[in-house]
Fold this protein.
Amino acid sequence: MNKYDSFQQVWQAIEKGQSFFVAGHLNPDGDSLGCTLAVCSLLERLGKEAYAYASPAIGKDLFFLPGLPKIHVNELPPKPQFDTVILLECSDRQRGGDLESVLQNAKTLINIDHHLVSDAYGDVNHIDSTASSTAEIIFQLFEASENGLLPTPDEATCLYTGVVTDTGRFLHTNTSAEALRVASALVALGADVNKINQVIYFTKSYTELKLLGRALEKMQLLFQNKYSQIILAQSDFELFNAVPSQTQGIVSQPTMIPGVEVSALLKQEPDKVSVNLRSRNHIDVSAIAQHFGGGGHARAAGFKVSGKPVQLVAEELAAVVKEALSNAH
Ligand SMILES: [Mn+2]
């Protein structure tokens, strides 16, 4: 299986299918959900049936995405029979959740992803880790179509959301010339940039702001101030009646401090500890996340651990970060 099947091969696989199942990864982010919706809309315009799926829930900040009500949240057909499955943003075939009943009955599996470490588990695989986002790849797929298909304004809004969120508002190091070219093209095609900015970037609840304050209060700098660690206990969430998903963006804050190379946010959730990692310049945090069974990108990654208290996970993580920092010099 080629890891880098061409867009032509992706299009050939799409042309062959009539009924499609489309999904991104668990806990879908803007890229995952934006791509799922844009691809489903495209398939429907091509006269095909598309079943959009997401699990386990969709964050409120993404409710504005055009076509969102079409998504089946946590809901699979009793006897899934799709010609073709398109998995987006899934670095392995389990990243979309328990989809085995869907995958086993499908004739063709198309895998489109931009993660650094990604399995070629599909029949057709287009994996491009140089792309800022899967949305960037989907736009290129449009451009490669023989019949000159272009995103509709709604599809452009979905794809722009993927590019803008995965590049952290064009601030992360994956903000390439190509990412900006694609973003520009999507704006020209009618992406609703103002709405996206208002909803995703200029809206935060009282609870989220209080949680941010709590997190910054608990920030600790270790290893000659190169490592920032924030541990949020269950009591921190209870204090503001908050849930762990309301911590978006917190992990990036400590990397503003000059000298901080790695930032970790550890959250004690009822059944697990979940960890977000960010790196400023040269530490590959996806390698650190992989050490704990997680993954992601060089500058942004994460993992989850069950059956261990958050303090123990913090100690184990600190040891791995310490080694990564010492190897970097
Ligand atoms: Mn992505």
